[in-house]
Amino acid sequence: MAGVDQPGFKGRNSLMASELSYRRKPSSVSEMQQKKFSHLERKAYKRKLREEKLLAEMRKQKVIRKEKEEKERAEKEQRELKERCGRPYTVAIALPGSILDNAQSLELRAYLAGQVARAAAVFNIDEIVVFDENYNAKQDVTEFSGLKRSDRGNTQLFHILQYLECPQYLRKAFFPYHKDLVHAGLLNPLDIPHHLRETDVSDYREGVTLDKPVKSGKGAYANVGLKKDVVLNMSVPPGQRVTVKLAEQVTEKKNLNGVVVSPNEPRETAGLYWGYTVRLASSLSQVFKACPHPGGYDLTIGTSEKGKDVEQVDLPRFNHAIIVFGGLKGLEASVEADDKMQTDDPSEIFQHYVNVCPKQGSRTIRTEEALLIAMSTLSPKIKSAHTSTDNSKGQPS
Amino acid sequence: MAGVDQPGFKGRNSLMASELSYRRKPSSVSEMQQKKFSHLERKAYKRKLREEKLLAEMRKQKVIRKEKEEKERAEKEQRELKERCGRPYTVAIALPGSILDNAQSLELRAYLAGQVARAAAVFNIDEIVVFDENYNAKQDVTEFSGLKRSDRGNTQLFHILQYLECPQYLRKAFFPYHKDLVHAGLLNPLDIPHHLRETDVSDYREGVTLDKPVKSGKGAYANVGLKKDVVLNMSVPPGQRVTVKLAEQVTEKKNLNGVVVSPNEPRETAGLYWGYTVRLASSLSQVFKACPHPGGYDLTIGTSEKGKDVEQVDLPRFNHAIIVFGGLKGLEASVEADDKMQTDDPSEIFQHYVNVCPKQGSRTIRTEEALLIAMSTLSPKIKSAHTSTDNSKGQPS
């Protein structure tokens, strides 16, 4: 209270001025004029007015403070909601395309690629890296390879993975006939959130920009799998794949409006699984070197039956994780084949080198099986690394 | 010590007789004859002999006691080793054969069955039950089914599972040509411990009894995948599959000898995964009613995306567990189709009704994927239920 009174002592002149303004109010002036006041009475009256003004000021400050607190709390809640609903981190997997070369028929070869895509979809994988595990072996012309082209598996896996990730209504635009996709019609659909039917309602949709004349000042048209095309907020060359945030869904309007957003937005703001990107890496070391995230992968996990029991592994909080799988001969062979790797010991390359299936009944676990087994075990650990408030688990760098 | 002395008091006559035998020894007798002993001296000498004899007896007893203790300790160690190495419990899975009817080609139909067998092998499953999920629907003739025979999937899955479990060297004996097995050659091998090559060394081997004349008093011959046939310890009709414990592996002998044992023995005593049995069930309720174990399954787990998050489930110690998977329409449809079930709510039928993949990216998880995902999550829980010494987890009934 002393503090509130201080202005009166600090700047008396200014206070006097404000008192005068009070006195100038018609009611106060007339009140003053009507009565003859003594000097003491005038002084008391002035003090009373001053006190009232200060109290009013205090009340105003209190309301402002309260509003500010309210706003801050709302912002915090929003942030928390986004953190809870959105998913800031990404998980990638890497595997050699050579696993396809071991399939018994062309149909089963394609089916195997489909199994990889399904596993990625089930476990919300954001990026699949297909690496060449025979990087140096190919240069070694003395090795007998018959007529088999050892790099066919990589590109076919790459193509089928991309094809399956693409929403059905966009496939005609992006996938002309290709021999790699001959058996793609037999594969199981991924059925992921962005594979939307015409009647499905969604804030976001994947689309392709169309070669359709636009009015000046208006953006390009895009087909997002709805009856009507969407007018975008910017001009984009035709034939581009875009992620569109639909502004409104009023059906009476001639055109729908949409905003082009980052393909990461549905994941980051709404926690939606929005499919995966596919990348070809010429060797195992390129898996890490050509990482699309500026800081690289900050959590690397290798899987092998020679690794540590996964049950004993706790994962730290991370931004971008990658889980690497070996081929027929295991991850050891992939590491050995890569000259650029400083070591032949895979456990030195990865932060965690884990065995995802201790006590396996079969002598071998196939890569397509290992994908499901590993992700099933690692998923709860990934989740708990991001929900846990335990600081000892470390923060992402 | 008092106890050891007692024989002296109990049977004095017999003791005297033994003393006399001492005296009859030539050396003692000559000693006695050479010297003239007083009555007291003779008495003292006798006492000395008696004491020496008792001490000898005590030493003997001590050695026997020690040997007995040694033996008991060894037996206990053996028992503990068996408990540690052996696996007393079994894990079964049950799934509808109708999952095959959804495959896109005959080749992929067989491949799907192969995936089920592989998943069972990787996770040491002891029994696979193939149940008919359309038990009542089949009786409903008004339902449109086209030309599709809805029960074909069950028998084909049954056949392929049996075929893949059988060691390669026995397949000729047990699997003549059958249309269900046309594409079985394309399937991935299980590579489980009892699929032994000729050069592999193993205490146990699977075999088939042969139609070969035997000497009187000798058991039947069996082919166990070795160069030489094995003479069994009993006569078994030809063409039977037997589990043989090889008595010795001396290669010089004309014939090897073997003992017919229970197919459970390799698991129970050595903890070896010894393949699975396959059973057809005409409905979901028959999965439980026709259980081959006398007490039935004492742990039943149902899997569904409508179940409880598997991370929150702790399994009790059990003897015989069964994990049941649904088909295309989920376990709910299988329960509804079964009139014999008292309820339509699957969570009432199973002790645990779990969701093995919360936060799945794909709208659906296929049964063959669910097998790997579920077993990957449940395996550590099954293991810890049997290694944990925590009594609060409960004992098998």
UniProtKB/TrEMBL annotation, chains A, B:
Superkingdom, natural source: Eukaryota
PANTHER family the UniProt entry points to: CLASS IV SAM-BINDING METHYLTRANSFERASE-RELATED, METHYLTRANSFERASE C9ORF114-RELATED
Organism: Elysia crispata (lettuce slug)
Family designation: Belongs to the class IV-like SAM-binding methyltransferase superfamily.
Protein name per UniProt: SPOUT domain containing methyltransferase 1
Transmembrane parts of this sequence: none
Coiled-coil stretches: 57-84
InterPro entries, alphabetized: Alpha/beta_knot_MTases, NA-bd_OB-fold, Put_MeTrfase-C9orf114-like, tRNA_m1G_MTases_N
Record keywords: Coiled coil
